[in-house]
Write a structure and sequence with these properties.
Layout (H helix, E strand, L loop, with lengths): L39 E2 L6 E2 L11 H19 L3 E2 L6 E2 L11 H14 L6 E2 L6 E2 L11 H26 L1 H21 L8 H10 L14 E5 L14 E5 H7 L4 H7 L20
Antiparallel strand pairs: 1-2, 3-4, 5-6, 7-8
């Protein structure tokens, strides 16, 4: 057969214009078309896929590499001797050359126990109130959560005040609604509590003059003089002259709805750095 009479081995088409070594035309496949293989599950990730080869075990090359790595790790693990875990004293076969513990959780617990054993838990003074205490952690520098919160509040007080002022200016209607709800609640307490006869302005001025325009708790007058109920209205106290005392802004806000015994026990306003020094008399503010 000459080049002029060459034909395709499959379809018999003329291939004289192709290369001399060509045996098939461009439209005929080099191999006979195979049937589509059935779907199977990947041995690495467990997902289903349609294989292109009969010996395909994984859906992709990364999954196949992961399968081979697992097989290699299993062979290496079978050849390694067993060792004792220092955390739980149980024997195990390590899957890494630098592995010391049977599981990461066991290692974390053992290191935590060792840290507690070698931690410095000696008594130390509090950085805020200078009270000597025994810490539960080596990094503790405050005697209580109250001292920690006070220091944190003093550090970020300008940012918090600025954020509160910005919120109040951005939400004036909501602020007025909250204030009206608070006033209505206090009015209900005053009316429902027994023997709430009210506080006359003359009696209140006389009581403030008796305490020389200073706080009855700490002796200061920073932030103005507020009317504080010794027994809070929310706990059944009377709104009468016998249940109120003049208090500075700090004492009134820190006392809140607590009794004097509870407030003093908490120690929030009885530390040296919380007691404001007596100053000149300021205008009254109820």
């Amino acid at each position: 057969m000459t080049n002029a009479t060459r034909a395709c081995d499959r379809c018999g088409a003329d291939i004289s214009s192709l290369h001399g070594n060509a045996r098939r035309c461009a439209t005929c496949p080099t191999r006979p078309r195979q049937e589509q293989l059935p779907t199977r599950s990947c041995e690495s990730c467990g997902g289903s896929f349609t294989p292109k080869r009969r010996d395909s075990l994984c859906c992709s090359r990364p999954c196949n590499l992961l399968r081979l790595n697992r097989q290699y790790a299993a062979v290496e693990k079978a050849q390694r001797p067993e060792q004792v875990c220092p955390g739980c004293d149980e024997s195990f076969t390590a899957w890494r050359t630098d592995q010391k513990y049977c599981t990461p959780v066991c290692g974390s617990r053992h290191r935590a126990r060792q840290a507690i054993v070698y931690a410095d838990l000696s008594e130390r003074p509090c950085q805020r109130c200078s009270t000597v205490f025994k810490p539960k952690q080596s990094t503790s520098v405050f005697c209580s959560r109250l001292c920690s919160r006070r220091v944190s509040y003093a550090r970020y007080r300008p940012q918090r005040v600025a954020a509160a002022v910005a919120w109040a200016r951005a939400n004036p209607e909501l602020r007025r609604a909250i204030a009206a709800q608070y006033k209505a609640t206090r009015r209900a307490w005053e009316q429902l509590n027994p023997d709430s006869v009210g506080v006359d302005s003359r009696e209140w001025r006389g009581l403030v003059r008796r305490y020389r325009h200073c706080c009855a708790y700490c002796g200061g007058n920073e932030g103005g003089i507020h009317m504080d109920h010794v027994i809070p209205l929310s706990r059944g106290g009377r709104h009468a002259i016998g249940n109120v005392l003049p208090a500075c802004q700090s004492c009134n806000l820190t006392k809140g709805a607590k009794l004097v015994v509870e407030w003093k026990r908490d120690g929030a306003a009885w530390l040296p750095d919380m007691k404001p020094a007596p100053e000149t008399c300021l205008p009254l503010s109820a």
